[in-house]
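JOB MANIFEST
job_type = single_chain_structure
chain_count = 1
residues = 171
[input]
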Amino acid sequence: MAAVVCTGAATLVTTPASAAPSAPHAVALSCSTDYLPLPDPSCTPGATNPDVTQDTIDQTICVSGWTRTVRPPASYTNALKVKQIAEYGYDDTSTADYEEDHLIPLELGGAPRDPRNLWPEPHYGDRTAANKDSIENALKRAVCNGQVALVDAQNAIATDWTTAKSVVGIG
């Protein structure tokens, strides 16, 4: 059974560790770009990896190189990117112009293969995947050094990555 955590504007969906690796889940048939630089929350609400909890961070996300052990292959993310570019209705359909990004990053225990946690984030605009990466890294450092609880960092980045650092008090 899946657990759903509602936090204001974001809903985080977790599945039990015994569940099969994230099979495709139903998402909205049409996603809006009106939320950019954020994803449409009805299509990409975020989802967490049930193997990553506050109690397991020292064996998971706080271990250098751990994300390499859970990152999905490009063959999976590239196919999903093509599908989601169409769902989002982007005029520009060149896959090179997007990063298939985890809303809740792997560095913070995001679900690696769950389509609810992945979206085609444009490389263009004022706030892009490159900007989000530095925020992800700062949040991970804060979680791993005990400044911020894991769930607080996950909720902040899933709600609005552009304000996540200030929401958790590190920025």
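[summary]
The longest strand covers residues 3-7.
Residues 129-144 form the longest helix (16 residues).
exit_status = 0
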